[in-house]
Amino acid sequence: GQQVMQIPQYQHVQEGEDFTTYCNSSTTLSNIQWYKQRPGGHPVFLIQLVKSGEVKKQKRLTFQFGEAKKNSSLHITATQTTDVGTYFCAGPDLLSNTGKLIFGQGTTLQVKP
Amino acid sequence: GAGVSQSPSNKVTEKGKDVELRCDPISGHTALYWYRQRLGQGLEFLIYFQGNSAPDKSGLPSDRFSAERTGESVSTLTIQRTQQEDSAVYLCASSLGGGWGQETQYFGPGTRLLVL
Question: Shortest CA distance to A59 belongs to which of A71, A48, A75, A73?
């Protein structure tokens, strides 16, 4: 079946270092979404990418959608302790042809001050 | 405006008892989702409601799990004869609906269920 995979599962960085998480889909996606879940919190929408090769920036966060629309990445420049949390990518469930999303397993980021 | 709300926020129950978890979606959102998240794990899809269409129950792990939704409002997730393996955070999300996987999902704070 359709799968969305993320690597790495965990990442520990020193504050100020950069961080990247990668998302790979087994199928071509119409769009990809990214969510952030702080420890003890719930997932919160960050961004949606739709176009092939699209790059979007939110302050220190850079999101990219691959040319083939099968992969995506989230890069954080100069991490801060406020970046701690789990980052999930999600793509539409193409088999069900509904509003369902398939979430990756998430990448948990720890930042040492 | 008000976001997605869930109740109770925490629930402790004994093995074998039934529990009901409630979700109030954002007003006007026709799509509603339930997820289970075990400690340190990702989001496990349970069930999806879209308007008056038949719900997508493909993620329910066993027949002990069921969910209902009244129109386009409140949803209740029921777990019968709870087992310790049911201990998790149950998250509800809603979206506008009809966007075929292009919509933002808005999550509630979740219900933390502990089965003793």
Answer: A75
Q: Say how far apart CA A91 and CA A4 lie, in whole Å.
A: 7
* A42: nearest CA partner in chain B: B109
Would the pLDDT of B1 be above 60?
Answer: no
What is the average pLDDT score of chain A? 95
User: Which residue in the set A42, A102, A108 is minimally distant from B107, CB to CB?
Assistant: A42
Q: Do A98 and B56 touch (CB under 8 A)?
A: yes
**How many angstroms separate the Cα of A36 from the Cα of each of A46, A52, B75?**
7, 23, 24
Identify the three-state secondary structure at position A83. Answer: helix
Nearest residue to A40 via CA among A108, A103, A100, A111: A108
Confidence check: pLDDT of A57 > 80: yes
Provide the greatest CA pair distance for chain B: 40
Which residue in A111, A113, A107 sits closest to A20, CA to CA? A107
Pair of tokens at residue A70: 């099968």
8 Å CB contact between B107 and A42: yes
What angle is formed at CA A48 by the lines to CA A44 and CA A50, rounded to 5 degrees?
A: 165
